[in-house]
Fold each of these.
Amino acid sequence: MSGFELDARPVAAVVLSSQLAYGAVGNNVIARMIERAGHRTVAVPTVLLSNLPHYPTVSGGAISDQWLSGILTDLLDREALAQASYVVVGYLGSPSQARIIAEWFLAARGRYPQLRLILDTAFGDSDVGLYASEEVAASYGEYLIEHAWLMTPNAFELELLTESKIHDEQDAANAALDLMDAGPDHVIVTSAPTEDADFIGCLLAIDEENLEQFDTGRVQTEAKGAGDCFLGMLTGALLSDVSLIDAVAQSVAGTSEALSGVHPAFTVTCAE
């Protein structure tokens, strides 16, 4: 059946997140960055929207459980994940989606043990608070965190996930290690605190003995999608056999350049 495919490359990653007709967030940018790194990507929407909810009007909504389950089942039936390395999960449209994705991921990993789950708990940020419901935020922990290989929460999300307060780098490190006790092998904390307010941090917790902090200058912008840009660049780098430390460093620098509008790989800035 693969003879029907114009792109004969094996699928390297499956991305499940929001999808917009107009806007560079969710699948629109995560999958784009992975493809730019040279890897075939399957993008499965959890919600379909006309544009970001920050505009005066927005149309669309969450994909139904029946549609999501059917799409994921069909991917297994097509053997689309036979050579894939990562399943990347971001924004969810309903709590039931976390359960559906978790059950599907376990079935997929049963067939293809090489699969690893990269989980971005995309439910809130410090500037806006929760932008998903409390039920959706809780569903990540209820169904997905225990299966994750790598997680990429921001500091706001990490506080909620670990029921802690993060004021400085040590707080972020302690919370990241606490989160690792719940499942993931590694944690990356985006928007992590730094000693200098002119900088923003990205903390990588490889294990209890190995923590790395990457600081970059703050970029004044109202653009949305920086976390998705980072996630896509990170996954693309990992698929290109870049080490985790180097992949984080490259993705931090690339996201900063994208927000500044100077990244050479962009014809349009990654975050919109």
Note: The first helix runs from residue 27 to 36.
Amino acid sequence: MPQPVVDIFIPCFVDQLFPDTAWNMVKLLEALGCTVRYNANQTCCGQPAFNAGFQKECRQISDKFLEDFSREGADYIVAPSASCVGMVRNAYADLYVASSQLVKYRTVERKVLELTEFLVDVLQVKSIPGAKLPAKVTYHDSCSALRECGIKEGPRKLLGMVEGLQLIEMRETETCCGFGGTFAAKFEAISTAMGEQKVENALSTGAEYIVSTDTSCLMHLEAYIKKNHKPIKVLHIADVLTQGW
């Protein structure tokens, strides 16, 4: 199989709050034989503006996204965030349905993949040499991964390749964690209660870590965990797959 050329998209949350996750994704992709490229001009996919109802402003950002990721030579565009991938695949379709840039959008949209689906569906990874985490973990299905991208079994397959890792499913794993972007700001009490429920379900498994594809969910859960001194931690799946290296 020819070495795939991958343009990486690093979302705002990852860039500002979880930069190690971005580096771990790069290390993982390179170790699996990919040529990784990073366009330093990239910014945001526009999701915050879109979700807040500012479609005109979002369109300015999404136009830039299409320009940044229309470079020649890339086979795929990979991001460590199902939320942002879902934005490009789904919301962009509404933004460009009657646009002169529809063809450009469709060209980019076909290349955009979340990290785990790229590893499982495209690279068809069967093992990750050196990955080791002797711990019990539970997996949180983010709304974007599950409902927007159809990601369910792939992350679990990858976690099964990590030496020493024991995956224990929690109750209501498909239930929202309560973040939801601006939802957490507009409906703080409901958002906090949902986060509490998710953390308590995770704790009931005896897991040491909550793992997910989305740093936004993990940030929300980590805030509740730290404030209430709960004995559990969070890890993005890219960080799990490079443990032990």
Note: Strands lie at 5-8, 35-37, 76-79, 112-114, 136-139, 166-167, 209-212, 233-236.
Amino acid sequence: MFYWVMKRIFLGPLLKLLFRPWVKGLDNVPQDGAAILASNHLSFSDSIFMPVMVPRRVSFLAKSEYFTGTGLKGRLTAMFFRLTNQLPMDRSGGAASELSLQAGRDVLASGGLLGIYPEGTRSPDAKLYKGKVGVAKLALQTRVPVVPVAMIGTEKVQPIGKRLPNIRRIGIIFGQAMDFSRYYGQEEDYSVQRAVTDEIMYELMRLSGQEYVDEYASVVKQRMAGQLPEPAAGSAANPAGAGNGGGIRPADGSGPDGDGPVAGKV
């Protein structure tokens, strides 16, 4: 009830009035049945703007830190995320991340829409970073289509570290639903997971117009914070062609990991 009241009566109308979001391709979102909405991630507000514009309920996998904050602000944030149907996502990897993905599978099994950020975290500089394979696991295990979603300009509305948003127009582009049925039965093969993820990231790059970087955003953030050294020129973390889309390829299965065509591996 809280979700629909906020979306249709309070938060939704206010956001539409202030930010005048333009939307393309909304008819690509299925009117019924399960689907994954895979989005680029530029701002904290992405998880608010996108569900407001989709007629159906969208459940998001959000980082678990949003649910464990302390103090008044932390408790209010956690309450808001729970009441708006957000699901905690543990990003530490291994069994913890797999358990978090189960919550996403449950949403899809019930015929719902699941929002997910393949990059795993917000972009630190408005570029598009390498996707993690969790989105591919979900798509292949549940056998549902993936709708790529490009958020446009939200990093300018609420830059990282800024509490109050800038009032300016934003955009959302919903791409055509992607069908990965050709890979069904191969969902445990990492090269297949990588190929599916790369194909999704290619569509996000194409729709958003972002510069692509063949590296995980979380690693870049650690480097910016001085927790990791700068990569050597020509290393795997700084490959030739990174930053101009050269490290990612569409549908043929070749990806930025250098896996080569999936057909030769499965």
Note: The chain has eight helices and nine strands.
